[in-house]
Amino acid sequence: KTLSESIEFLADFQLLFGNIIRINGAFLEVAEKICSDDELITVPIWRVIAVIRINPMTVSEVAKYLGLKRQSVQATVNQMKKRGLINFRKNPNHKTSPLVVLTKKGNDKVDDIFKYQKKRTEVFIDGIDITMKEVVGSRELLRALRENSESNISKLK
After folding, report:
1. Which of 66, 77, 131, 142 is the most exposed place for a label (fewest CB within 10 A)?
2. d(Cα 74, Cα 71) in Å, to the nearest integer?
3. Could you tell me where the DSSP H helices lie in 5-109?
4. How much is the pTM?
């Protein structure tokens, strides 16, 4: 008997899934509150900066990494360009898809992003007893579920 044939497993898995959806909403709500006074940073901009701060990527690569539609990321990148946070750099691997790179102004906001991420994390972990091992285990479970769903989604009709 497989796990998906167990009514108890299905019920618990749906509760897990529901909690993932709810925590995603909470992450976004907390992030909105934390950066609400920042004139340059919105939550979508925060996410893009967090992704490209070390390794410039194309808009499509950012969208795939974040699990968002390319058009949505393009709109965010356009806002970032207007605000002077990013520039486009020639992509040696693709003639028509430039790399999105942070400007000095964008790099200067990385410290603020780190502070925002620290503050957001504190909102979620303050008051609960959690270990690094539990965080890593949960992260790995969610990564495995995400990767498995990506490979299995093509099997759906």
Report:
1. 131
2. 5
3. 7-34, 43-52, 59-66, 70-82, 104-108
4. 0.82
